[in-house]
Amino acid sequence: DVNSRKCLNRFVDEGSLYGLSIATSRNGQYVACGSNCGVVNIYNQDSCIQETNPKPIKAIMNLVTGVTSLTFNPTTEILAIASEKMKEAVRLVAPLLRLLKRLFEVQLSHKRSLS
């Protein structure tokens, strides 16, 4: 709780040895945790507050380098996953947990074909 400066709960990110990033959705539904091995676990926020070993509702393993940035869009429709360790290492994931096409890769391919 930020106002009282008290920790409400601590939880273990399943399978993660070293966490690099964390994000919460504005609607309070999800918590996403990014690890050094490229895995992002998505949890129900309530389970993270109530349990010490919550089970992720989805594990996303689409990056091969550490996940250094995570952010949900304002309506929690898309989770952006990125790594600063590799060029163009960006993924967009729907909270319903289907991987979307890599928007930036598609745009870059289109730009290259026009050159």
From TrEMBL:
Primary location group: nucleus
Annotated protein name in UniProt: UTP18 isoform 3
The keyword Repeat is annotated on this UniProt entry: yes
A GO biological process held by the record: rRNA processing
One cellular component (GO) term of this entry: Pwp2p-containing subcomplex of 90S preribosome
Subcellular location(s) of the protein: Nucleus, Nucleolus
Keywords assigned: Nucleus, Repeat, rRNA processing, WD repeat
InterPro entries listed in its UniProt record: Utp18, WD40/YVTN_repeat-like_dom_sf, WD40_repeat_dom_sf
